[in-house]
């Protein structure tokens, strides 16, 4: 039988749910303007979920909730940099077990629309491209650049054969596969690149599978985004004119199904700009109109999830996205049911039968309360532990890439070459601090440099004073022409107008040191007094808490916040070595961080480690604490409420 053409036992098992009279098939029906699945007309109502933003233990719960909303498909991005962290080293295990995720989706009864990139945007670091591609300094990403193509070929040669058994016609859940992502919004407009990808995808996946593109719903986007052999779809949100948007798709595809590949249920956030909110009523109304036209739709996002660790991206002009990717989606960052979930379910009910039975409930949250924090070493004090490979010396500063580090923080050190007895400007005239630098002189905090925002701080000190600069990668640009986003000190600094020479640099492996609990205690000093306006050099803090006895079903999910660290509040937080991401309530809008229960332990005290970059008032034990609460706060006050200069990004900018 032709259905077993793949030949493996796995395929046979996957096929049990299918009719055995005919091979499963999925195709574009150009004559009847629809998709055709197993010979029947078919329309999908899908939702986006990013497995890389949800702990594996919660995949099933989130997928089940999506199924119970009435969706018949999900759409997923595959972030290349998540699976190939260094060239040739692949990771598909644990939270990165893509095949396990696909099997869960299929078991639950959801089809899958696969978006393997290579570029995905997604508000994910560098749009999913691995930072190591920047080892070739002048690489033209997303083009026919031979080094870029060689890396893509190798990655797709690994990934696509792995995906092939999961294609619908091979008995799996994948009905269609997107090539690239919104390529029409990228400056390169390199048709040879898109043609190459088309051939590459076909060679690995076969001739049958539906390959498609997605672009903004405008002729200007479709011009460079759509290409012969790939079915062109569009994306647009509830504020768009649906008729005009689908007319744009019809211009590229006169026949075939109408498809909105990204119908926006909410929108993304940036540090310093107000939390984006889109009303349920607007989403429901527009969704209903789309479905009434017989169109296929994917709701982006159905659940946003969390940018744990360092995975958030940024937009240009530089604005980093926060840790939460809640997106104001129908399921919250923590998978909670919302009013929007039920509004969408009511709309879907009008167009297709939705599954009977109860929707899985919102997972309970627990307030573990306040946890006192103790001061540990400063980054400068712990340098030897934090830098496994030791120091690197060079005349001019090197970038993260040159130092072979992708994420987190790099420590730069130099000495004042002359007396700076009066305040002397330490500057980055080329705006080359990527992205934020915490400067101290002889251990005393001197100021902060920030990309596009602050290019000069004044320093004072004698010749020979030690200047320490901790430079933070806040997430690589994921959209537009600036995705070649080098980190660290990417151009020279000057002191009093003279180029600084003689750098010592340390790449830092903070995550491993925190995970192994190697940092030592260091009692507070005079310098830690909470004097208004006085900051301190980047310092670690630690505390621990026990999950209470006698309460059923603990541990449960929670949210962490730093309510009483008044002045500075900006840094990174780990629990039991798991990197929860960046907190920055003073810039907003995100105030609390999601803490999934599976990282908590009932067998031992839970260890909270904080790297506070600007200084916390920890001379008073009352103030020095973090707190676990049951209520998320994602819409706190933002800097832009008072400082108008931070630019808002509108949809047209980011299509
Ligand atoms: C692979 O990824 C998983 C999930 O993030 C992680 O736990 C594991 O340590 C990684 N494996 C390697 C070899 O890095
Ligand atoms: C929507 O677009 C269509 C086609 O371009 C146009 O005829 C119509 O007037 C537009 N509707 C609104 C409300 O702008
Ligand atoms: C810096 O100033 C000190 C006095 O404060 C002086 O002894 C020293 O020679 C000066 N060094 C330079 C390089 O000018
Ligand atoms: C640096 O100091 C000079 C002289 O005191 C002052 O005019 C200038 O505003 C200061 N610059 C900054 C960035 O603080
Ligand atoms: C720093 O300046 C030197 C001398 O002008 C130059 O050769 C070098 O390329 C510059 N380095 C960076 C990172 O811009
Ligand atoms: C927290 O740290 C303590 C002391 O290092 C250790 O004994 C304990 O196992 C850690 N807790 C967890 C959950 O790993």
Provide a concise account of the structure shown:
This protein has 655 residues and is of the alpha+beta class. It is built from 14 helices and 34 strands. Helix 5 (146-163) runs parallel beside helix 6 (191-205) and helix 9 packs parallel to helix 10.
Can you give a write-up of this model?
This protein has 655 residues and is of the alpha+beta class. The strands form eight sheets. It has an eight-stranded parallel beta barrel, surrounded by six helices. A six-stranded antiparallel beta sheet has the order 16-27-17-23-20-21, with no helix packed on it. Strands 15-28-33-30-31 form a five-stranded antiparallel beta sheet. α2 packs parallel to α4. The longest helix has 18 residues. The radius of gyration is 26 Å and the shape is globular. The two termini are 45 Å apart. 49% of the residues are buried. The N terminus and C terminus are likely disordered.
Order of neighbouring strands in the sheet with most strands: 4-5-6-7-8-9-10-11
Compute the average pLDDT: 93
- Provide the list of bound ligands, each named once: 2-acetamido-2-deoxy-beta-D-glucopyranose
**Shape category:** globular
Low-confidence stretches: 1-19, 641-655
Strand content: 25-35%
Helix content: 10-25%
Count of DSSP H/I helices? 14
Q: What does the main sheet amount to?
A: 8 strands, parallel, barrel
Q: Specify the structural class.
A: alpha+beta
Please tell me how large the radius of gyration is: 26 Å
Instruction: Tell me the span between the first and last alpha carbons.
Output: 45 Å
What does the oligomeric state look like here? Answer: single chain
């Amino acid at each position: 039988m032709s259905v077993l053409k793949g030949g493996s036992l796995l395929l046979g098992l996957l096929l049990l749910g299918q009719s055995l009279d005919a091979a499963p098939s999925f195709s574009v029906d150009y004559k009847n303007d629809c998709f055709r699945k197993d010979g029947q007309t078919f329309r999908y109502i899908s939702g986006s979920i990013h497995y890389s933003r949800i702990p594996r233990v919660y995949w099933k719960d989130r997928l089940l909730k999506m199924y119970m909303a009435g969706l018949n498909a999900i759409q997923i991005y595959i972030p290349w940099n998540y699976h190939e962290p260094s060239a040739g080293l692949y990771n598909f295990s644990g939270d990165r077990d893509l095949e396990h995720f696909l099997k869960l989706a299929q078991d639950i009864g959801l089809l899958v629309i696969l978006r393997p990139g290579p570029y995905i945007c997604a508000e994910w670091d560098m749009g999913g491209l691995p930072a190591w591609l920047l080892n070739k300094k002048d690489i033209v990403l997303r083009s026919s650049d031979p080094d870029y193509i060689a890396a893509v070929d190798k990655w797709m040669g690994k990934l696509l054969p792995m995906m092939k058994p999961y294609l619908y016609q091979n008995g799996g859940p994948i009905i269609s596969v997107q090539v690239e992502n919104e390529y029409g919004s990228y400056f390169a407009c390199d048709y040879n690149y898109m043609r190459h990808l088309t051939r590459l995808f076909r060679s690995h996946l076969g001739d049958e599978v539906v390959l498609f593109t997605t672009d903004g719903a405008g002729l200007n986007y479709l011009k460079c985004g759509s290409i012969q052999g790939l079915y062109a779809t569009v994306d647009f949100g509830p504020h768009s004119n649906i008729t005009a948007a689908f007319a744009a798709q019809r211009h590229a595809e006169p026949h075939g199904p109408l498809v909105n590949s990204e119908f926006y249920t909410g929108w993304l956030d940036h540090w310093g700009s107000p939390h984006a909110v889109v009303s349920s009523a607007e989403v429901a109304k527009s969704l209903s109109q789309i479905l009434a036209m017989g169109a296929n739709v994917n709701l982006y996002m159905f659940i946003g999830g969390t940018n744990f660790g360092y995975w958030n991206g940024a937009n240009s002009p530089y604005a980093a996205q926060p840790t939460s990717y809640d997106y104001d989606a129908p399921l919250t960052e923590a998978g909670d049911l919302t009013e929007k979930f039920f509004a969408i379910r009511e709309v879907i009910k009008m167009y297709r039968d939705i599954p009977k039975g109860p929707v899985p409930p919102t997972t309970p949250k627990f307030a573990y309360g306040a946890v006192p924090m103790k001061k540990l070493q400063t980054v400068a004090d712990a340098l030897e532990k934090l830098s496994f490979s030791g120091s690197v010396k060079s005349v001019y500063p090197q970038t993260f890439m040159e130092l072979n580090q992708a994420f987190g923080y790099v420590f730069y050190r130099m000495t004042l070459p002359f007396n700076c007895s009066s305040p002397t400007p330490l500057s980055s005239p080329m705006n080359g601090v990527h992205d934020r630098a915490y400067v101290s002189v002889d251990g005393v905090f001197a100021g902060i440099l920030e990309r596009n925002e602050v290019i000069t701080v004044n320093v004072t000190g004698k010749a020979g004073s030690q200047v320490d600069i901790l430079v933070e990668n806040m997430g690589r640009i994921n959209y537009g022409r600036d995705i070649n986003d080098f980190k660290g000190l990417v151009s020279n600094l000057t002191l009093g107008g003279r180029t600084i020479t003689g750098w010592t640099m340390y790449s830092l492996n903070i995550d491993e040191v925190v995970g192994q609990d190697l940092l030592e205690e260091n009692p507070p000093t005079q310098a830690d007094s909470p004097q208004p306006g006085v900051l301190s050099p980047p310092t670690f803090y630690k505390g621990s808490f026990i999950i209470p006895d006698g309460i059923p079903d603990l541990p449960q999910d929670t949210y962490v916040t730093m309510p009483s660290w008044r002045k500075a509040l900006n840094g990174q937080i780990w629990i039991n070595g798991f990197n929860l991401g960046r907190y920055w309530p003073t810039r907003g809008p995100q105030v609390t961080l999601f803490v999934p229960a599976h990282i908590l332990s009932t067998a031992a005290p839970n260890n909270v480690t904080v790297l506070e970059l600007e200084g916390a008032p920890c001379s008073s034990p009352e103030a020095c604490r973090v707190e676990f609460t049951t209520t998320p706060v994602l819409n706190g006050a933002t800097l832009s409420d008072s400082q108008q200069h931070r630019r808002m990004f509108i949809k047209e900018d980011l299509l």
